[in-house]
């Protein structure tokens, strides 16, 4: 006897969007999630009485996606400016610190038919750029893309950058991403705390086995929409995987080998006041309009990139530190207290501000270890050399029975984004519902 027609595995944004669309179409569906919460790698942390949203996962809206148009926050009342630390001095900076923008312009001018190569190899072929610009470009690829510059595909980067839309500065959802989760959260049909360990499938039939709060549970359905993160799908092809597919996803092996899970670590510091406003740059200008702060070539183990929360004031202020790629992986498993101390050390050095004053103004630090999180094992994905088309290959259904969604299946250049995950869930729901129509 069937438990439902369609099961959705994973209640991140892709799974929620797929489940919502299935319900709108009148499909009999269940949603299965390992965590005891919704959202996946979108993880707002409620802080009672605090005026600013605290995000442990995604924070920004990239570009101007129509899917999130109703959630975009109004711009900050005061214009924000960026600064960078160059040779130990605080100086104003543009979107791409240290002149890295010229490197990306040349990269975009490559012929589409040119052989694919890694970003590091591209830099080696264009050694005429100043060292500061090259370092800034590498820092951007490691930070923004959460990627290894020696592996990430230039062809895929150009496809992503061609989406554009961020030239007026980063956007955020109004009130944080909690509003989006509320808008797409289902009223019922959700099984939280259900850790799927086996998916047995054949054309037209699937058996899902899980442990729900330690007790075995099983679902029999006709079709499944899989929204597991890339890293979990990659592990499924290995012995002893946390989630096993029977038969294995051999048809996806090439796509999975041409995508990589990037690492990113963020830590948000909540202060009694915007303490950075006390600082001055080399020209004597106050940092009261601080948006982003790029730390440059900081020592290993320190946090290079910072941004403030719009709306920070004497009633509450927060600033978020970010590091990606190998720097983030190196911090996997560290205790939150150690991450907080590292963040305060890094911010003190970047602002040239006494560490004791930061400690006195600090209310709390918030972070989540995505690299060690067993249901994520990383932040978001990127394509390695030769993998620009791997997103589409991963998204293709199998035997009209297994359908795939999630940011790693978004093939238009919007992978690694919330709207890409949302879009992929709606696409997979349409595919799965069409089979049963």
Proportion of strand residues: 15-25%
Based on CA atoms alone, the radius of gyration comes out at 22 Å
Second rung of CATH, namely the architecture of the largest domain: 3-Layer(bba) Sandwich
Mean of pLDDT: 93
Strand elements, count: 20
Content-based structural category: alpha/beta
Spatial strand order of the main sheet: 6-5-15-16-17-14-18
Tell me the major beta sheet: 7 strands, mixed
Count of distinct structural domains: 3
Report on the structure:
The protein has helices at residues 13-24, 101-108, 119-125, 131-143, 154-161, 178-184, 230-235, 253-257, 326-329, 336-351, 355-361, 390-395, 418-436, and strands spanning 6-9, 29-32, 44-45, 54-55, 81-86, 89-93, 190-191, 194-202, 205-212, 215-221, 223-226, 244-246, 259-261, 264-271, 290-294, 305-308, 317-324, 362-367, 381-383, 402-404. The mean pLDDT is 93. Strand 8 and strand 9 (205-212) form a beta hairpin. The chain folds into 3 domains: 6-41 and 177-261 and 384-436, FAD/NAD(P)-binding domain, CATH 3.50.50.60; 60-65 and 72-78 and 170-175 and 264-367, Polyamine Oxidase, Chain A, domain 2; 99-137 and 149-161, no CATH class. It has 13 helices and 20 strands. The chain has a 7-stranded mixed beta sheet.
